[in-house]
Amino acid sequence: MESIFRVIDMFPVVVVHGGAGHIPKERSENSTSGVRSATRAGYTILQRGGSSMDAVVEAVTQLENNPSFNAGCGSVLNIKGEVEMDAIVMDGKTLGSGAVSAVRNIANPIQLARLVMDKTGHACLTAEGANQFARSMGVPEVPLESLITDYSRMRWKKNLAPDANPVECQMGKMGTVGAVAVDSEGNVACATSTGGMLNKMEGRVGDTPCIGCGGYADNQVGAVSTTGHGEAIMKVVLARLILFHMEQGQSVEAASDLALAYMKSRVGGLGGVVTVDPQGQWAARFSSLQMAWAAAQKDTLHYGLYTGEHFTQSIDDPL
Ligand SMILES: NC(=O)C[C@H](N)C(=O)O
């Protein structure tokens, strides 16, 4: 039952990540400024009384449009040098979700995922079927080239070398994007979007569009968006595992740490998460070397990149 105290005590919050990994020094400034400005955009929606779903989709759309991240423009390339993207949204009020996988030529897969949730009776559309659905919804298709940056092409080429180890190399630069939010009504939502893993096989679908792996949202527990090695995340169903720990009484932070530690010890996987509960408690945690993250609540912007880093500024200060 909804308690009036819960609504009064609750402060809307949005928490954003720009991917777990190892961000080269020359790219770290762009990553942190990207997540901060996406967080601010999501928070503006919450401040105006908008929904957590609108806030997470706006934040992730901004990061998809930012070439510094592995999502939308800037996505990593598959083995054939092409972009195939995965995305998911989930609404904690209804447990409704929408996802797309292996989708091509779409600038904002997160918006297509939302259309899958809002306009179809399905939870996930894949590959050409997802593109056909996009056409039927009037979502414009963009040239493949417009999603490819010089940086992603350079890394793709580097990883074609016979002695390359794409999994090792990309532990470095994962850059998937995601967000979770709680709105003024206590509704939680999540959104996650990715180009997947560097030099992946054509048709490879990662954790991101899989419910419970790339994200999960339930008003009765909280919401999570994940990033990291997709095959490891799928083995432990990372997002739902965190919510399970919260159901057992753990805080957002402890639940996130427990699940990430389990993924590391059990399957050797590294990753990161952003987590909220319906009361507006939030956490940004990772087992990788870095994860660009930012959060906005009570007119304060919080952000960090390395473990233990936590900076704050007023939401209105220049980024
Ligand atoms: N960068 C990432 O987080 C990658 C994503 N989880 C995937 O495996 O597709």
TrEMBL record:
Q: What is its EC number?
A: 3.4.19.5, 3.5.1.1
Residue positions of the active site = T176 (nucleophile)
What reaction does this catalyse?
Cleavage of a beta-linked Asp residue from the N-terminus of a polypeptide; L-asparagine + H2O = L-aspartate + NH4(+)
Q: Where does substrate bind?
A: R204, V205, G206, D207, T227, G228, H229, G230
Indicate the annotated site residue(s) for Cleavage.
G175, T176
Q: Which GO terms describe its molecular function?
A: asparaginase activity; beta-aspartyl-peptidase activity
Q: Name one GO cellular component term.
A: cytoplasm
What positions belong to coiled-coil segments?
none
Sorted keywords for this record are:
Autocatalytic cleavage, Hydrolase, Protease
Listed GO biological process terms? L-asparagine catabolic process via L-aspartate; proteolysis
| Superkingdom, natural source | Eukaryota
Q: Which PANTHER family match?
A: ISOASPARTYL PEPTIDASE_L-ASPARAGINASE, L-ASPARAGINASE
Family statement drawn from the similarity comment of this UniProt entry: Belongs to the Ntn-hydrolase family.
Could you identify this protein by its name? Isoaspartyl peptidase/L-asparaginase
